[in-house]
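Working notes for the structural subgroup meeting. M.R. asked for a predicted model of this chain before we commit to crystallization trials. I am recording the input and output together here so anyone reviewing the notebook later can reproduce the run.

Input as submitted:
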Amino acid sequence: MAAAANQLGSVEHIVVLVLENRSFDHMLGFLYGDSGNVSPVTKQPFEGLTGKEFNLDATGTSVSVSALTAEEPNVYFTPGADPGEGFLATNAQLFGETSPPAGVSATNTGFVTDFAATLKGIDADRSNIPGTTASDIMEVFTPQLLPILSGLARGFAVCDHWFSSVPTETFPNRAFLCAATSQGHMDDSTSKYTSQSIFGLLIAHNLAWSIYGYNSPPLTRLNFPDTTDAAESHFGVFRDFQAAAAAGTRGVYTVLEPRWGSSGNSQHPNYDVALGEQLIHDVYYTLRNGPAWNQTLLIITYDEHGGCYDHVAPPTGAVPPDSCAGEFGFDFTRFGVRVPTVLVSPLIAPGTVFRTTGTMPLDHTSILKTAETRWGLPPLTARDAAAPDVGDVLTLAQPRTDDPLAGVTVPTSAVPNPVAGTPSHIQQVYAQLVSALPVNDTQGQTHSAMPTLTTEQDYHDYINSRSAAWTAARAGTRPNGDQPR
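Returned structure, recorded in token form:
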């Protein structure tokens, strides 16, 4: 395989799969533990776990990081409960207090004590597996338990210095993933933004894009005006993505969502991580078996750490995206916790450990910067303007033909999902968003009150039915709008 300079110009399709709430150490910390945290292929150093990392519990007892084993019955439901993930909880995990003084450096020593506080205050909406303890937050997966994610990370490229954009929970980070800003918002109480997104930017430059939900219309569509108003042809579910990939009709930019419910494949704690392994497998082979594989870059990442342990302190020096005042007094000058990110393309050398050489680390806006660099687009905010792209990971002049996952079996959980059927937090937010869609009810009212929903299936059915009614109403009253080419 001939090495070459940056081959980003050979990429015609960027596909982004964003999973939920797992830290880098929790999923990939032991990726190269068997080779002294050095890639045996490229000899590049890898900032993984040594096994000596620890936190102290409330009594001052040391709790060391430990590797999960397949013999643990609920291994794929670790950490057994939904840890704290908001701004204050993240501060407690990083600094040991919710409001650290200015200038204090993160030590990443508060994960156990914060998880203990979460477990103490847990309620029916954050159900946990019996026997879950605070020390479980220090348990991490091994490559043997995650052969799909780890196989792609070792077979292509792993980013060991990729940070979530802000030190908080899901929706602010997903906003940065799409728009390079959360417009000052720092928690999930806001899930709808008014800024332009990457999708609106692509529309303005006549470039095709799509967003696919898994078995429901994509939630991302309702987060931004330019996606909500976009033509139906941009949206679908996973089987539509598979059909487009097989037919070679994908646009330049595709975003994939998981199934959001507690029985789904998002890998959100404490749902079945093995189902997420199956999703990653299916996305990879959908692309690999399609006609555009040699021109495709797949980016697999996680929106935020979800309260799971990581030993690397997030860097400071982040560029504030805009002039919006941050909630909690946050100034947007430090990044969130490190998350797993794997880059997959036949133009990437196996065993690559990819990080930038400059002072600005990779974060979620690096995805936007990569698309902007490839297709000559202007930045959305000051954050993606300053972000590095990932083009330098593409070093092969000739696409590879080997398959790092050949012969690899997707894992399955040995026990039923203990929390299946409970509505997820994201389902609840999604239902609120669709309830506000302009659909006339039987009394002729455009916005109707959301009905009482109690189960995962209730939320799924309501989201799908309300979305379908809105789509039908739009088809009868709106022009088809822009079309992807």
